[in-house]
Write a structure and sequence with these properties.
Layout: E1 4-6, E2 21-22, E3 27-33, E4 44-50, E5 53-58, E6 64-69, E7 75-83, E8 86-87, E9 91-97, E10 100-105, E11 110-115, E12 121-125, E13 135-141, E14 144-149, E15 154-159, E16 165-169, E17 179-185, E18 188-193, E19 200-205, E20 211-216, E21 228-232, E22 235-239, E23 244-248, E24 254-258, E25 271-273, E26 277-281, E27 286-290, E28 296-300, E29 310-316, E30 319-324, E31 329-334, E32 340-344
Parallel strand pairs: 1-24
Antiparallel strand pairs: 2-12, 3-7, 4-5, 5-6, 6-7, 7-8, 9-10, 10-11, 11-12, 13-14, 14-15, 15-16, 17-18, 18-19, 19-20, 21-22, 22-23, 23-24, 25-26, 26-27, 27-28, 29-30, 30-31, 31-32
């Protein structure tokens, strides 16, 4: 099927061998209280929701992971991490599944598991056999945990219950080249390969780690710089430099290429989907699409929304949470109307 490019009449940016886990005897939470600075965030990047908790990683400062109340938006605690052998630096992406919270740490080449109820450290996984090398994106579902190693051009799969190694996916045929985003659904693991030489997305069997297919976007002249992926129902959504691509989750075929000028795509990065809606973060706005048709619902860019350089976006129920790297804030929006609920930070 020839993909349809959506234009307007005007013509026209969710993540284990011998196991050696550093436990609480060698790992300490230096601070578990709300920060006293003007903002609880310092270049917030990744955001995840679990139950009544919102978790945010910060890209700068003293290795902060900030926990918020999903109900009130108030800061529950800000965590600063230290291990006996030195600082645990570079918190990257975060994933939540039930009572577990996992945070990738590129600076320490490891993954930290927290208790979602009290933020206590369960374990830190830094085993050589896991082959962590610039771990960043992370995805969790049931017994599985996947981590994309940007520098290692690989994906590490762990057992979510004990942190043990399942496998390291690094076959040449998988074309993993600076993997930067992950999404899993329906037995499929989708990996965005962001290197300019790749410009592709790899589909893997989530049960076996075997290759299903590699979809090369370079065959479409206008699809450059793949950056994020999200899956809902039978649809896979991928952001590129100035567009969003919709794929069939079963076949990998391109359904739509959405790039109308009115969609206001400007270096789209983060993406979140539900059964009926798709939200995409841009350089200074959030674009909402109809998931059934790909048509524009609205562009959210009011000055009061504090969307200067929005990064990651997540949706839960009727709430959308957006991290903003420049304003050091998290913006909460109403998923039904796009209206502002609150600015945190």
């Amino acid at each position: 099927m020839t993909p349809r490019v959506r234009h307007s009449v005007i013509v026209t940016r969710v993540m284990f061998a011998l196991t050696l886990c550093v436990t609480l005897t060698a790992f300490a939470v230096l601070s578990a209280s709300a920060t006293t600075s003007s903002s609880p965030f310092n270049q917030p990047v990744s955001v995840a929701i679990g139950g009544s908790h919102v978790w945010v990683t910060n890209g700068s400062g003293l290795n902060l992971v900030t926990e918020l109340s999903a109900t009130s938006g108030t800061v529950t605690r800000s965590l600063k991490f230290h291990v006996a052998t030195g600082w645990l630096t570079g918190p990257g992406c975060i994933a939540v599944d039930g009572p577990h919270v996992w945070v990738t740490n590129a600076g320490y080449n490891g993954v930290v598991e927290l208790n979602a109820n009290n933020a206590s450290v369960i374990r830190i996984v830094t085993n050589r056999g896991d082959r962590f090398d610039g771990p960043y994106a992370i995805a969790a579902t049931g017994p599985h945990l996947w981590i994309a190693n940007q520098s290692g051009n690989s994906v590490t799969e762990l057992n979510a219950s004990n942190g043990s190694l399942v496998r390291v996916i690094t076959a040449h045929a998988d074309h993993l080249n600076f993997p930067s985003a992950l999404s899993v659904a329906g037995g499929h693991l989708w990996v965005v390969d962001s290197a300019a030489a790749a410009n592709s997305i790899t589909e893997l069997n989530a049960s076996t780690g075997s290759l299903v297919r590699v979809i090369h976007f370079s065959r479409f002249a206008t699809l450059l710089a793949t950056s994020a992926v999200a899956v809902a129902d039978s649809h896979v959504w991928v952001t590129t430099l100035h567009s969003v691509v919709e794929l069939n989750n079963s076949t990998g075929s391109v359904i739509h290429i959405i790039k109308a000028r009115v969609d206001a795509f400007n270096q789209p990065g983060g993406i979140a989907v539900s059964s009926y809606h798709v939200w995409v973060t841009n350089f200074s706005s959030v674009t909402e699409l109809n998931a059934s048709t790909g048509s524009l619902v609205r562009v959210i860019k009011a000055a009061s929304d504090e969307l200067h350089y929005p990064q990651e976006i997540v949706v839960s129920g009727n709430n959308i949470w957006v991290t903003d790297n420049t304003s050091n804030t998290v913006t909460e929006l109403n998923a039904s109307t796009g209206s502002l609920v609150r600015i945190i930070g």
